[in-house]
Write a structure and sequence with these properties.
Largest sheet: 9 strands, mixed
Bound molecules: zinc ion
Shape: globular
Radius of gyration: 30 Å
Strand content: 25-35%
Number of strands: 31
CATH topology of the largest domain: BirA Bifunctional Protein, domain 2
Distance between the termini: 16 Å
CATH superfamily of the largest domain: Bira Bifunctional Protein, Domain 2
Structural class: alpha+beta
Amino acid sequence: MRASQYFLPTLKEAPSEAEVPSHIFLVRGGFIRQLAAGLYEYLPLGLRVLKKIENIIRKHMDDAGALEVLLPILTPAELWQETGRWDVYGKELFRVEDRKGRLFALGPTHEETITDLVRKNIRSYKDLPKNFYQIQTKFRDEARPRYGLIRGREFIMKDAYSFDVSEEMAVKSYEIMKETYNKIFSELGLDYLMVEADTGAIGGKYSHEFVVKAANGEAHIVYCENCGYAANVEAAKYEFELDKLPPEEEKPLEKVHTPNVSSVEDVAKFLGVSPKKIVKTLIYILSDGTAVAVLIRGDRELNETKLINYFNVNDARLATSEELEKMGLVEGFVGPIGLDLPVYADVSVQDLHNFVVGANEKDYHYINVNIPRDFKPIEFVDFSTAREGDPCPNCKAPLKETTGLEVGHIFLLGTKYSDAMKAYFVDKDGKEKPIVMGCYGIGVSRLMAAAVEQNHDENGIIWPESIAPFKLQILALNMKDEKIKEVAENIYKKAKEKGIEVLFDDREMSAGAKFKDADLIGIPHRIVVGKGVKNNVVEYQHRAKKEKEEIPIDKVDEFLEKLR
Ligand SMILES: [Zn+2]
């Protein structure tokens, strides 16, 4: 492709709303343009990247036996009403009305649609298993679309759905997808983690997220370099047994005056004890209206996702000062002794001796508190947020912490949708049973951004080879110089003959501007045809490396051969 005939609207400045490298460089590099908040146009360069990502995904999905379909973007409201999600989804669901007043949603996901297709067309165990996938535009009415392709209102997803006769078979389908996803993300050339995910209210151990490591990611992950374990901080098990304090003789309970001292840090300092011996008492209001007290050791952070899952509620929040006052409690001095609320404790409190809690009285704490002598929690539960340095649940090595972008999620659904929508099959024994489902998503357009988040420098993008818009870029530094023009044209012709995807920068502009654009666009291999032609050499450079290499013009053919 000749740059002079292509569309390379590169920009010197990033748009003011661009905050993260992928947004900045994809716009500046002429890959995408914003139409309206959260809506992007893919320009020729950007579409090339997108298609490459799609094709890698498609190849591995096909290899795994999944069958590609294409479902309508408009999905009838009645299907969403069958599963209850018309109401549950809230404002994020884009709703539209046709001329007859019939309601539809612009699909953010397609469980309902695909389940409807299957219940109408699959009747017998002989037709199962099946795995259908599509690569398609999805919609979500984000309150705050931001970060370019990372959080848009319209985006491209690969979504797949498996259908099996039993949970055992569904697990097999799930495992095949897990393996397939690893192949996909490896071929994309990204540094990623397969993460044990929080399965939400549904529960179960079959949910994994695929997270591309990136500084700007919103996913917080702990992982083990020793054994490969990785989990979201809200799903990671806290190995409290390995983090316990040594046992102690129980001392008599004592109420002490702690004037104006209420934070863990201050109480620790005032009483001269470790924060590990101070137990925080947090009063939570669950979304069903109940108030509970949750205890956790002073050096640990409570994870609200773990709390929400444990109580099987939609949401939970800390009680406000006014609510505490109404319950007769004093903010900063709340404690479990004599408390008229259900008391639960994080596992970090288990086997803790002679610890400190609030005395439910202004400016007082209890010291030398012991369980079960002084109070008894209903249950010890893992509510702790995992963090760097915690022991790995598998191998006990210290965990590392990183942030990343979630680009894939696989999930064993069970019969949630088939029960709700009556997607049954007739089994070998002649009985009707619900089909067991799994769902598997990949954020295709998000992957494009994630690849840039992970692979860039201050000058622009450094595309992984497998998804680069072109493999080779030829820069002719001065097209008015006959020799340079001739050599560059010749290399371009040869590269094309060898089937190498090549962008030939033959534009009439300064060498400096061409180098700037090349760095910004990030094509991996670069041949520079400049003054060296007088000495019969051209220059080669890889986008990721600083070193330059001279190639004699008569060796270029050999060099191109290696690039194929
Ligand atoms: Zn480990």
